[in-house]
Amino acid sequence: MTETADRKDDHIRIIEEEDVETRGTGFEDVELIHEALPEIHRDEIDTSTTLFGAEVDAPIVIESMTGGHPNTTKINRALAEAAQRTNVAMGVGSQRAGLELDDEELLESYTVVREAAPDAVLYGNVGAAQLLEYDLADVERAVEMIDADAMAIHLNFLQEAVQPEGDVDARGCLAEIERVADGLSVPVVVKETGNGISRETARRLADAGVDAIDVAGKGGTTWSGIESHRAAAVGADRQEQIGKLFRAWGVPTAVSTLEAAAEHDTVIASGGVRSGLDVAKAIAMGASAGGLAKPFLSPAGKGADAVVDLLETLELELRTAMFVTGADSIEALGEREYVLTGRTREYLDQRQ
User: Fold this and answer.
1) How many structural domains is the chain composed of?
2) Cα separation of 236 and 229, whole Å?
3) What's 83's domain CATH number?
């Protein structure tokens, strides 16, 4: 097993066993305006939307989590089966391990998703830093690995900076992203990994031709915190302290959603999204969908039924928010007014 594959197993264990959550998404400062006379039937509300050129039944994304170790196959199978049954989009974790080593058992942790979800919208995942090593054919190989409908390029440079073995050369990544966005056979989404995307970076990505931006802002799982735990386990004391210091670093998800949506038409709000109400708020703020990762991990360990149960709960929460704001479609929800208060309002005022 490669170092990359072992790292994937470490990540899942730490997420399940340690406190790796932060607060401060900013959604607590966002209030939708209540409609006392909605004049619609809750059960006739249309929650469907289009993502990566395909129709999904709800604007809820099972965010990229894992893959690359045999222990993750069960998790990805359950997530993919649930995505198939509920017709929502799903991403896999970084496919670097699958591209590094031609190991049948390891590859199954990725290929299982298309087997379990033949009709669902699935997207692959490679790191921006790895694009400096990969040519377009390598990224196409990642697409083919899961018959992906889109490809995510993840930005995780804070995580890399905390890893004792991290890749901290970020030079030339934007040009490589533009190259892939221009030449790949499927849409390209650029996603952060828990630290958010600012307005300025969103503008650079839009100019580079990416098809979507997933903000993955501050307020959910902290990968700096996760890598701090890994560093502690191998005695890398300095990296452990760096991870702790930057545990809550980043642009809050609500702020990042607003800023990215001002620069790009297709934005996925993720990073501490924990309810269908959070998804509704994000869509009112300009997002096309909301994504969750960690909340699906424990249910996935129990099987697809548990994941479906959570997805149905999220959909009902979203539907309820739409009902009491008088929005009979996702398009209508995107036009609903909201009020910004507290630190999020202050943050945005300073930014403007």
Assistant:
1) 1
2) 10
3) 3.20.20.70
Residue listed under structure tokens 């980043």: 250
Residue reference for tokens 């930057």 = 246
Reported as a single tens digit per residue, the pLDDT across 3-50 is: 666 676 788 888 888 888 899 999 999 999 999 999 999 999 999 999
CA distance 198 to 217: 9
Annotated binding site for substrate: 7-8, 94-96, 159
> Which residues carry a binding-site annotation?
7-8, 64-66, 94-96, 125, 159-160, 191, 221, 272-274, 293-294
Residues belonging to the binding site for Mg(2+) are 160
What are the Cα distances from residue 98, in Å, to 44, 68, 116? Answer: 43, 6, 18
Report the binding-site residues for FMN: 64-66, 94, 125, 191, 221, 272-274, 293-294
pLDDT in tens, 216-233: 999 999 989 899 999 998
Mean pLDDT of 131-138: 95
- Calculate ∠ Cα 95-99-103, nearest 5°: 105
The contacts of residue 138 (CB under 8 Å, 6+ apart) are 99
Domain interval for residue 105: 3-350
Q: Locate tokens 């005022």: which residue?
A: 349
